């Protein structure tokens, strides 16, 4: 009997000794956080295919519906392979003495990444996949700037060059430990990295390529509004993974990011609808879903830093500013940014990134700043300017190079016939 008691005491003592080590081991891999980022990864990919694909495809004319779907799908595949080949490594690994500008190639083709590798408390494989979905949707957004006129072959080469020359360095500077992150630039889920770069690049592309044949005198309304709204709904839902997933944990930060994302989307939608109602006499379905996208894009950089009231202000501001940006770009300057990528995503990304420096302050309901509001706004403005200059400049260089080497757009006759039949020998609607 005494021997049994002694054994029990021995096991109890051994358990007490090992308990801290067992607890520490369990914290190395957090299964709850892993499950949430796995879910968020699927949601962000869902934003591109089918969300953005359907949204864009419904906005173009019926003769080009398949071309847009094809472009989004092909971009998804291309960037996925480029990501593992070198993009991930160049963004998120240590670049040594060049770290302030670019990462290294130690994990090119995912060498040195094993099933047990961790990023924080989630598997590195999950982090790789999550960040890949952000790299996919960014060049897919640019499709809206050149829709209905760019050659498919040119689009593929443009995407590859743009991803390496624009997305990789800007993403590294902000998220990979580069010089903008060292300065304290705040971009929770991609206002600068994604929306500013894509929006500015779409504007430059539209300017370099020129307007579609018939623009602006010929009406070019969306050919399928139910498709547009279906895609928009998918974007709204997927955006929760986009923003709340960027917390990289299933905790309070993710919860607040999801809440403020929804608030801003709703506020942007209603604001756009009301302005349109007052200005044109009737609210449109296209207007309310565009306001939603504006609200989502504008809250993206701020989503992990601001509170509900900050989100409400940002959403209302997005609805106002982006609405008038669309009018200025298309009606005043007659620039054929086909699907309003710059006035919605580009302008929204700029506004949201600047306002992040304001509403992150604790006094305004945010999660707090280590510096003054004026200082942070200055850092945010610098990061925005850098992203505009870099993405705009390199987009221009890439386009001019491709124009000389392979040409940018289809002929006028081919544009009249439509890209679906000309480039892909298919039609979306056989009864038309």
Short structural summary:
The protein has helices spanning 2-28, 31-59, 65-92, 124-146, 152-175, 179-183, 191-209, 225-244, 252-280, 285-299, 308-332, 341-359, 373-405, 412-417, 419-424; strands at 118-119, 122-123. It is an all-alpha fold.
Summarize the structure in words.
By secondary structure, this protein is mostly helical. It has helices at 2-28, 31-59, 65-92, 124-146, 152-175, 179-183, 191-209, 225-244, 252-280, 285-299, 308-332, 341-359, 373-405, 412-417, 419-424, and strands at 118-119, 122-123. The chain has 15 helices and two strands. It has one domain: Ammonium transporter fold (Orthogonal Bundle), CATH 1.10.3430. The chain is globular. The termini are far apart. Mean pLDDT is 94; it is low at 1-7 and 9-26. Helices cover 71% and strands 1% of the residues. It has a two-stranded antiparallel sheet.
SS elements, strand count: 2
Q: Per CATH, what is the topology?
A: Ammonium transporter fold
Distance N to C terminus:
91 Å
Q: Indicate how many domains the architecture comprises.
A: 1
Average predicted confidence as pLDDT: 94
* Share of residues in helices: over 70%
Poorly predicted regions: 1-7, 9-26
Order of helices and strands: HHHEEHHHHHHHHHHHH
**Second CATH tier, the architecture:** Orthogonal Bundle
Class from secondary-structure proportions: mainly alpha
Query: Counting H and I runs of at least 4 residues, what is the number of helices?
Result: 15
């Amino acid at each position: 009997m005494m021997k049994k008691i002694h054994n029990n005491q021995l096991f109890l003592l051994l358990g007490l000794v090992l308990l801290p080590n067992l607890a520490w081991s369990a914290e190395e891999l957090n299964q709850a956080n892993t499950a949430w980022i796995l879910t968020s990864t699927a949601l962000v990919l869902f934003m591109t295919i089918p969300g953005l694909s359907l949204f864009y495809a419904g906005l173009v004319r019926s003769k080009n519906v398949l071309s847009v779907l094809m472009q989004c799908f092909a971009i998804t595949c291309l960037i996925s392979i480029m990501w593992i080949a070198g993009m991930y490594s160049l963004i998120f690994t240590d670049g040594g003495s060049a770290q302030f500008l670019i990462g290294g190639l130690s994990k090119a083709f995912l060498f040195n990444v094993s099933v047990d590798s961790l990023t924080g408390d989630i598997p590195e494989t999950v982090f790789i996949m999550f960040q890949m979905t952000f790299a996919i949707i960014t060049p897919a957004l640019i499709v809206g700037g050149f829709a209905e006129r760019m050659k498919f072959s040119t689009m593929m080469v443009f995407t590859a060059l743009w991803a390496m020359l624009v997305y990789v360095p800007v993403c590294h500077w902000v998220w990979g430990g580069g010089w903008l992150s060292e300065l304290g630039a705040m971009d929770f889920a991609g206002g600068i990295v994604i929306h500013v770069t894509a929006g500015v690049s779409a504007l430059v592309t539209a300017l370099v390529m020129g307007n579609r044949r018939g623009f602006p005198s010929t009406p070019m309304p969306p050919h399928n509004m139910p498709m547009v709204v279906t895609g928009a709904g998918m974007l709204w839902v997927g955006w929760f993974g986009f923003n709340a997933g960027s917390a990289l944990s299933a905790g309070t930060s993710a919860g607040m990011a999801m809440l403020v994302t929804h608030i801003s989307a709703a506020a942007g939608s209603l604001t756009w609808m009301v302005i349109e109602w007052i200005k044109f006499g009737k609210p449109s379905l296209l207007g309310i879903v565009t306001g939603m996208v504006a609200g989502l894009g504008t809250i993206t950089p701020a989503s992990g830093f601001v509170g509900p009231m900050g989100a409400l202000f940002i959403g209302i501001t997005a609805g106002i500013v982006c609405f008038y940006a669309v009018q200025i770009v298309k009606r005043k300057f007659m620039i054929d940014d086909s699907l309003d990528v710059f006035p919605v995503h580009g302008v929204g990304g700029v506004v949201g990134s600047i306002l992040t420096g304001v509403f992150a302050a604790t006094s305004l309901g945010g999660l707090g700043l280590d510096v003054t509001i004026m200082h942070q706004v200055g850092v945010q403005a610098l990061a925005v300017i850098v992203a505009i200059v870099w993405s705009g400049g390199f987009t221009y260089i890439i386009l001019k190079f491709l124009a000389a080497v392979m040409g940018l757009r289809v002929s006028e006759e081919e544009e009249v016939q439509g890209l679906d039949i000309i480039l892909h020998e298919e039609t979306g609607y056989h009864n038309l």
